[in-house]
């Protein structure tokens, strides 16, 4: 459409992610490293799933639309499962790495906690996933035209950007919940993460009915956000204290010696 | 995500293209023919788009009054105007030219049949400044003061437009464009059309500006490793052949050699680039001369006439006589096999296709005929032509009043010295060609038509012309060259050859006959090229008419036709692909020996670096990167700004929220803190 649409959609899709990166990750080199490693793991999972999908498309019957649609669904499900598998693999790797880092470092305490790792790796997954979802759409939004000459909906760029924002944040929440569940051996939580990821991905099959795909996605985003908040150590009481600015007393009252 | 099946984006090397987003937005135009920019010593003509293409909202013009919507009242400028061919007139185009930024471009829909009334985008007086008539040579005849040769000319080809003008065929793609307009851009009764609107983008950015001197200067700038050329001089090769072999390495005057020049023109043009069918203006002339040369092949070998006949085919005559001025210049500077002293007379074949009442007119130059000796020679030539026409059902006549020569290559010879000559045309005064130098000057204009059910091979053989004019020209040339009377009756042009040539040059050049001759370059356009490519087709056709097959070479690939008894300074040797014999698929090629050669047809102004010359042609053609177009929908400006606003709002609010959360993170995430060894 033009530069204004390009920038608008970029800010919508990557705005929260950029804000999170700037304020929480950019100052700590270790967090940056783990973010990039997380992004790389997601990329490998995509490579594997696209390899499988590509081969299956080549051997399939290209004329049959039903078969192609079925292959697409198969591809999406496979990709989700592979992404979660790689998230688990990254978790295992990080556990091992943390022990190694501890052995190497001079300090007694771990340089980075597993909770922070969960957040950082989730955000890394989110960045890469968002990039692959939306960058080619953004590249085409720079031109003078908008979607619609063949009858498609005009709101393609906007809804893609909002969907990408949701996916990035969701990956972050899923990372937090997933790692915590693996720590505490709560496998039902892992299954819930996988199922919610599947649900969100399959909701996109509703496109171009953007309302039916975006609204449930944001509902799931909100619920996962609350779950992740509680998992990360938040509570309603803390939230109330923060909002009513009574936090200073709280700190003093709850001061514990280390 | 199923927005785009983009797993293959990662594996795009395998050739699975995943640009389905672009396919949702744009429909590319398949057939893009645009007008291009040409420059000469003083002006630039043609069209230009901006570097990133011109975007405009589509509007199909219904009538000339509808221009008011485009120019004044339409609410969504700039507009891209689609013109049907009846509206492609000078008045509409001039109004659009003065549209002051509301016109982004024009697309003209070319009809499938020629319009009933004529259309000629050329000027009314072609090549008026580089002919022989000027202030110093009979000013009363200069600048078409006596006869306006092309009265239908509206001069559009020589105007400058600052928006792109494309030509569309009337086919399915254009129907898509019209449908898009009807669906989205059509205003209801008095209401303005709603966004999204259908729009088109046309790219035809031209690199050269101002005039030839400027662009040649810019060509010469050599700062970088890859110097970029911005324009090229128009020019190509002339083709010439002689009935007696002439020593090509000994240039300049040839003793005892008297030459009759039989000239024709090869090229033509139209408003758009590379569309130049030129059926009546070019093809009719040179096909006639080729057929005459073919008819003379035996008589000039067995009973050689006194004088040599030099067949010359000039390239670039449309643009101020590039080919003929070059040949005359070479003759004057001893760079050609003969020089002007060797030239006895000139017979030029002009536009001879549309003979009403089978009548042909012989035009001469009255000024040079004031000289007695020249007048006598001209009368002899006219007499030869008249007597050659007897018994052939063709009448020739002189116009009967003092009239200047029509625009013809012979004028450049007259500029050098008064040579006797005649130009053969089918019009007594003004042109009978209603479509001079336009895209409609095609086979339909010449009434070259075929019954509907013929295959291309059958069309190739279908007799469309009886070649009487070619026979007359051949006999007249033979007489003029001093041949014997007795041979005249045996000189006959072959209608088969004429019909094959007309088919190949007007309808389709990729046919079996042309393929026998060698590498077929598409010759369907007569536009003079800027790339110096081997003018293969015409030269080879000339070979076939004037040559003798001497020996067979290996058939697998063209060998260098070397053998000890070849005489390259007298003859030109070439490899001809040949036809496949009935039982095999391998073609049997052979070498031909001919006197046909190419000579450079580049205006002397470029060799002399006189880029503002008034004597020679200074035409150049601009270079461009690509010419393409596409259609799509555009959204309203408000929606775009809204998107940007929402994006900036999301970014700022997320920055704010994140800052707040991260500064209060100790508190928010305090419960469930790991008991020991936790750091932030």
Write a brief structural summary.
The complex is a heterodimer of chains A (258) and B (680). Chain A is mainly alpha-helical and 258 residues long. Chain A contains nine helices and no strands.
List keywords for this structure.
heterodimer; A: 258 residues; mainly alpha; 9 helices; 79% helix; B: 680 residues; alpha/beta; Glucose Oxidase, domain 1; Aminopeptidase; 8-stranded mixed sheet; 19 helices; 23 strands; 28% helix; disordered N terminus; disordered C terminus
Total domain units of chain B? 2
Radius of gyration of chain B: 31 Å
Multimeric status of the protein: heterodimer
Which chains have the largest interface?
A-B, 79 and 64 residues
Descriptive overview:
The complex is a heterodimer of chains A (258) and B (680). Chain A is mostly helical. Chain A is built from 9 helices and no strands. The longest helix of chain A is centred in the first third of the chain and has 40 residues, at 65-104. In chain A, 41% of the residues are buried. Chain B is α/β, with parallel strands linked by helices and 680 residues long. Chain B has an 8-stranded mixed sheet with strand order 1-23-9-5-6-7-8-2. An 8-stranded mixed sheet of chain B has the order 16-15-17-14-12-13-11-21. In chain B, helix 7 packs across helix 13 (468-480), helix 7 (279-295) runs antiparallel to helix 14 and helix 7 (279-295) packs parallel to helix 16. Chain B is elongated and about 120 Å long. Residues 1-18, 519-537, 545-558 and 673-680 of chain B have low confidence and may be disordered. The interface between A and B is large, with 79 and 64 residues. Chain B: Belongs to the nicastrin family.
């Amino acid at each position: 459409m033009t530069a204004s649409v390009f920038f608008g959609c970029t800010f919508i899709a990557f705005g929260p992610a950029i804000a999170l990166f700037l304020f929480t990750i950019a100052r700590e080199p270790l967090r940056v490293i783990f973010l990039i490693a997380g992004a790389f793991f997601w990329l490998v999972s995509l490579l594997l799933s696209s390899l499988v999908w590509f081969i299956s498309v080549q051997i399939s019957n290209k004329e049959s639309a039903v078969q192609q649609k079925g292959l697409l669904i198969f591809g999406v499900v496979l990709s989700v499962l592979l992404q979660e598998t790689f998230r688990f693999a990254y978790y295992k790797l990080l556990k091992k790495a943390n022990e190694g880092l501890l052995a190497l470092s001079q300090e007694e305490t771990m340089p980075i906690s597993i909770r922070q790792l969960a957040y950082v790796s989730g955000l890394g997954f989110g960045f890469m996933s968002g990039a692959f979802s939306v960058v080619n759409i953004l590249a085409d939004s720079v031109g003078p035209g908008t979607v619609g000459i063949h009858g498609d909906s005009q709101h393609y760029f906007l809804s893609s950007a909002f969907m990408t924002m949701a996916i990035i944040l969701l990956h972050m929440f899923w990372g937090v919940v997933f790692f915590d569940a693996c720590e505490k051996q709560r496998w039902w939580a892992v299954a819930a993460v996988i199922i919610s990821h599947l649900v969100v991905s399959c909701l996109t099959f509703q496109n171009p009915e953007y309302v039916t795909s975006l609204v449930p996605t944001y509902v799931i985003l909100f619920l996962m956000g609350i779950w992740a908040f509680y998992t990360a150590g938040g509570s309603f009481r803390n939230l109330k204290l923060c909002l009513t600015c009574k936090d200073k007393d709280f700190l003093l009252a709850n001061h514990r010696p280390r | 995500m199923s927005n785009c099946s983009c797993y293959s984006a990662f594996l795009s090397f395998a050739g699975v293209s995943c640009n389905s987003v672009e396919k949702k937005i744009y429909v590319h135009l398949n057939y893009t023919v645009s007008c291009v920019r040409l420059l000469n010593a003083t002006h630039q003509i043609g069209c230009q788009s901006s570097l990133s293409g011109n975007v405009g909202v589509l509007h199909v013009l219904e009538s000339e009054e509808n221009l008011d919507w485009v120019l004044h009242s339409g609410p969504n400028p700039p507009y891209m105007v689609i013109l049907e061919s009846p509206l492609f007139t000078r008045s509409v185009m001039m109004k659009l030219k003065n549209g002051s930024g509301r016109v982004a471009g024009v697309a003209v829909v070319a009809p499938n049949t020629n319009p009933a009334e004529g259309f000629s985008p050329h000027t009314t007086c072609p090549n008026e400044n580089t002919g022989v008539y000027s202030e110093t040579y009979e000013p009363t005849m200069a600048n078409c003061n006596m006869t306006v040769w092309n009265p239908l000319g509206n001069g559009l080809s020589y105007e400058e437009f600052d928006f792109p003008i494309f030509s569309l065929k009337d086919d399915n793609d254009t129907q898509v464009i019209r449908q898009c307009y009807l669906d989205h851009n059509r205003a209801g009764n008095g209401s303005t059309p709603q966004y999204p609107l259908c729009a088109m983008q046309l790219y035809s950015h031209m690199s050269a500006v101002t005039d030839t001197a400027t662009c040649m200067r810019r060509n010469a700038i050599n700062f970088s490793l890859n110097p970029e050329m911005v324009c090229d001089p128009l020019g190509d090769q002339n083709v010439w052949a002689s009935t007696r072999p002439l020593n090509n390495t000994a240039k300049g005057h040839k003793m005892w050699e008297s030459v009759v020049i039989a000239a024709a023109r090869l090229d033509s043009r139209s408003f758009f680039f590379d569309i130049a069918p030129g059926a009546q203006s070019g093809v009719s002339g040179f096909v006639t001369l080729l057929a005459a040369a073919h008819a003379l092949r035996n008589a000039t070998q067995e009973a050689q006439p006194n004088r040599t006949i030099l067949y010359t085919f000039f390239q670039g005559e449309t643009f101020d006589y590039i080919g003929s001025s070059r040949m005359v210049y070479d003759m004057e500077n001893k760079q050609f096999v003969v020089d002007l002293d060797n030239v006895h007379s000139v017979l030029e074949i002009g536009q001879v296709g549309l003979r009403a009442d089978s009548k042909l007119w012989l035009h001469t130059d009255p000024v040079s005929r004031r000289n007695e000796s020249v007048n006598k020679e001209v009368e002899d030539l006219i007499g030869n032509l008249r007597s050659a026409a007897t018994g052939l059902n063709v009448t020739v006549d002189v116009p009967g009043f003092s009239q200047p020569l029509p625009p013809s290559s012979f004028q450049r010879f007259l500029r050098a010295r008064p040579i006797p000559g005649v130009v053969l045309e089918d019009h007594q005064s003004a042109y009978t060609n209603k479509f001079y130098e336009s895209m409609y000057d095609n086979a339909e204009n010449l009434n070259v038509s075929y019954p509907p059910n013929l295959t291309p091979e059958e069309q190739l053989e279908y007799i469309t012309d009886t070649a009487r004019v070619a026979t007359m020209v051949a006999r007249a040339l033979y007489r003029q060259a001093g041949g014997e009377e007795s041979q005249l009756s045996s000189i006959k042009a072959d209608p088969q050859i004429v019909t094959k040539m007309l088919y190949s040059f007007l309808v389709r050049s990729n046919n079996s006959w042309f393929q026998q001759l060698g590498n077929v370059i598409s010759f369907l356009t007569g536009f003079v090229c800027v790339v110096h490519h081997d003018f293969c087709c015409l030269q080879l056709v000339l070979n076939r008419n004037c040559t003798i097959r001497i020996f067979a070479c290996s058939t697998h690939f063209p060998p260098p036709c070397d053998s000890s008894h070849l005489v390259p300074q007298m003859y030109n040797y070439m490899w001809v692909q040949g036809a496949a014999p009935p039982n095999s698929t391998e073609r049997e090629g052979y070498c031909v020996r001919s006197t046909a050669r190419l000579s450079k047809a580049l205006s002397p102004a470029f060799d002399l670096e006189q880029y503002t010359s008034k004597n020679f042609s200074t035409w150049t053609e601009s270079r461009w990167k690509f010419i393409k177009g596409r259609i799509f929908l555009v959204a309203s400006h408000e929606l775009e700004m809204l998107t940007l606003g929402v994006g900036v709002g999301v970014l700022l609010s997320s920055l704010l929220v994140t800052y707040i959360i991260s500064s209060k993170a100790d508190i928010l995430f305090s419960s469930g803190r790991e008991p020991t060894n936790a750091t932030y």
